[in-house]
Amino acid sequence: MKKTKKTALTAAAFAAAVGLSTYGTIVSGTYVDKELKANADQFDNTTTYGNTTTIQTVYGPPSYFNTDPTEETEPISETDPTDPLDAPDPVETAIPGDIDNDGQIDSFDLAKLRKLINTEGELAPPLTENGRLDYDLLEKADLTHDGAIDNSDIHALQAYLKGEIKKPTDFAIPVPLYGPGPDFGIDK
Amino acid sequence: MLDVTIKNNHLESLAKYRQKLMTEPQLKHLFLELTLRCNENCIHCGSRCGEIRSEELSVQQYETFLKEIKEDMGTANKMLCITGGEPLLRKDFFDIMSMANGLGFHWGMTSNATLIDDSVARDLKKCGMGTISVSIDGLPETHDKFRRSPKGYERAMAGIESLLRVGGFKSVQVTTVVTHQNINELDELYKIFNEMDIDSWRVINIEPMGRAKDYPDVILTKDDYIQLFEFIRNMRIAGEPVSYGCSHYLGMEYEREVRDWYYLCTAGLYTASITANGDIIACLDIERRPELVQGNILKDRFSTVWKEKFKDFRIDLSDQCEKCKGCSEEKFCHGDSFHSWDFEKKEPMLCFKDILF
Hints:
The complex is a heterodimer of chains A (188) and B (357).
Chain A: H1 5-17, H2 31-43, H3 53-59, H4 107-116, H5 135-141, H6 151-161
Helix pairs in contact in A: 1-3, 2-3, 4-6
Chain B: H1 4-23, E1 29-33, H2 59-73, E2 79-83, H3 93-103, E3 106-111, H4 118-126, E4 129-135, H5 140-146, H6 152-166, E5 171-178, H7 186-194, E6 200-205, H8 222-237, E7 242-243, H9 251-254, E8 271-274, E9 279-281, E10 295-296, H10 302-308, H11 330-333, E11 341-342, E12 347-348
Parallel strand pairs in B: 1-2, 1-8, 2-3, 3-4, 4-5, 5-6, 6-7
Antiparallel strand pairs in B: 8-9, 9-10, 11-12
Helix pairs in contact in B: 2-3, 4-6
């Protein structure tokens, strides 16, 4: 069975709940810590839950919970700033499609995305400066939300740059509830 | 166990969100029961497939219907969930799904996979199938006996291997219905599935409904339920892509621990279904009762039905249930899933209070 970022995060959440400092291949200081802290901040800025908090909130609904708590989809546009669940994101959020991280989506991003994928359509895993897998980049490049960086993401970015779709993520697949489970196709 | 305070906060928010959905439902999952014909005869079949003659809609009728959906509601954020019976028994299956794919619908399917070989898998990919869930209900002997299908296990596993060999699908999932007879086979099944390149394993309990009502000995005992949920949780702790299904409120101990989301019965909120004869209903697993049919796509415009009807599903079932009154979990459970609701006794046929919480 395929292990994914999502299953690793789930395992990490359980590990944290029982007080383990690390779990499996999850390395402190990489994607997990960063993402978990971000979500904790978004969820509740004022409450401290101890060492396990940041992971617990990631394991719970994402910060856009009020939109659709049963699945992971786009963040909602309607927000209630008085509601901590709807509080504005205090953490800089990655822009899907902004592969070169310059704050805008343009042909340079398409070129960089193409470099990630070889002629066989396979991903050359991007690494950070310290040699770890660059999950931030993967996150921004997975425009179809299928857990893979492949030609479908290039296609989506091309369509966005041509003005054929409004958002680079407009081709993201919806999540079926039954049969194919709720997280089917979404390894995020 | 994960943090109860956080879980409680999330469930409180979900309850509010559900209230909003009742007035502003969002169609996300549209089930198409293409046929009630089946080449297996499962003891647990909720549809009692094979016992009744199946009416079936034509390709043209599906095309008219799906074009209406696209015109009125769009195809974005919607998923066609193709089911049966065994959908692949229809000779015009690929005509229907190619048409749907051409209209821009995403689709996935549940299948017993016994009719899938490399050629069929390639055709499924060509006409846009994104996801598939295949039933494996035990080790070979148990599976074949349960599904009353000689060599059913062998053929289903060959079908899965074809899907994996052809590749290119968003996800290939195995679903196992757990019974009192096969619950002790889960560890062995895990060893088998773990050697395969499947994307996930959905493990669900047999429901006291459909044909299973005739076989009470297959229903899980209290100890079985706990064993089941502990198994799933332990798999997830180990980082395996194992999950329970969408059914049932599980209480604080297991909510969010055995699946990636919290309990929400989406019948009539996110989910609608078209039966083999074109009837519009909420969820195919809900008892088929005439008063629950909301319309028929051969004479009604689906978008109008979705907007103006389905009132029976945008309610709290617990309001009708004496047993639910005073239950501390009622605010999160709302009377549990529609598919396991006893419409005569007005109470859940399966409630996990006193079993899990």
